[in-house]
Amino acid sequence: MFSRRRILTAALVGSAGAVAPGLARAGAPPAGPSSALMARALSAFERHPGAFARDLIAIADFDAASSVPRFHFVNLVSGGVTSLLVAHGRGSDPDHSGWVKRFSNAPGSAASSAGAYRTGPLYVGKHGPSRRIAGLDPTNSNAEPRAIVVHGAWYVSQDMVKEHGKLGRSEGCFAVAERALPEVLARLGEGRLIYADRLHA
Fold it and tell me: Is residue 32 packed enough to be buried (19+ CB in 10 Å), middle (13-18) or exposed (0-12)?
């Protein structure tokens, strides 16, 4: 039987996490998602019953800077956590500080949106292999018409962090390192939860 408390405990035990090889960063990474952010992510199972597979979720911790691995893949069975670099939208960071300043669900905002997403099918588009996602909350309900997806990007890499101290920015998509993309697309199969948020304004 699904137990949010059991899964939260397992995830926190495993939250020392693993940083994917070649995706190191400037400064110490967050040790997996915080208990508060993990609890918010798991609450999506209650808001959207039956919407997600319950083996793995991905949490984008937008309290963290883009220079650290903040896209946390949490195994809900073992509690293991793998953390990767992920870019945020330029509309969330107009000055390109490396930090998310705001969220927006508005078309044309080029911003990241908070909330729960359900992963959809793979396709090949202008960014190459990508995965469609659907926003399930009022804060991200325009994800599909905005063409918010998971894709690889040249501006997400350890070299970018070393040279600039931060990643480049997307148009609101979850952009990951090109070398990490096959793993991301495979692990985030159709019907998985991606949760994006920040706890501090």
Answer: buried
